Amino acid sequence: MEMTEYPVPIEFFNEDKVPDWLEVTIIAPAHLFPLLEKFFHLTTPRVVIRYSEQGLISDCAQTFVARIPYSTDPDDVLKNLDAYLGLLEDKYCLDTPIYLETRYIHDGRDVFTAFQVSPRFTVIPKWEDTSLPDDIVIRLNPGRVFGTGQHPSTLLCLRVLEEIGDEGFFANSPTVLDVGTGTGILSIATAKLGSGAVLALEVDEEAAGIAGENVSLNRLEHRIEVSLMPLSKIEGCFRLITANLTTSVALYLADDICRRLMPNGFLILSGIRHAQTEAMVARYTGRNLKLVKLYRDGSWGGCLFTR
Length: 307
Description:
It contains 8 helices and 14 strands.
């Protein structure tokens, strides 16, 4: 997957307006990108990372971009990052120093523009106009929340949704449970594909607020309910469950997720490193689910299960 390149000039902090993100751009040999990605995921919650997967086959310098929510004390992250880059330079005896540049971003408009996220859907920021038909448009205000559709794990979910949609799954308006909805993008996509009622669960209050706003932007309040209720407290079963989660959360929630899937229903599970899919498949097939198909996008994997 190719990364959309953005100009990254240095900007100084404007004390009159607290920024939403600190964007970090690193130019380094591409074989270091998995190590950089691991560093950010371990040190920064809700970090958004972008780089070219195709560039990983080359050792030449490539661009790695990470967006850090300003609420997570980015100064501390930068201090640790500087030390970590120094260790990488020494360990790998690099001829050229690793280049680091930063800038502050307000409300995501600098980096979030309209793009076609799948064969069917185009994501449009709430501040942009479009003449595209409403049924193929997903309007989003990303806020500081994960899930604009640009991450491979979200792309995988959308790909699977469209595949089962092409096979007629949504013809009978199935009920949907979206676990860890983030911006609400998957809930919105399922509703526009023809689902019945959608319950979008989120444990983060800020994310739930953004998801609710995005449901309203797409005029789907009558179809999608955003809730902070824990998964363990949810009653009833669903024909479709989407769960774009971290590996540890997906493993932890396996029992609760499986209990809420109807017979002959589908579970779409994503957010998994490809190397971790075997453990994920073992956990869910051990709870009476059947693996239908595995998906891969670069180093990320996804699973489609049925009961």
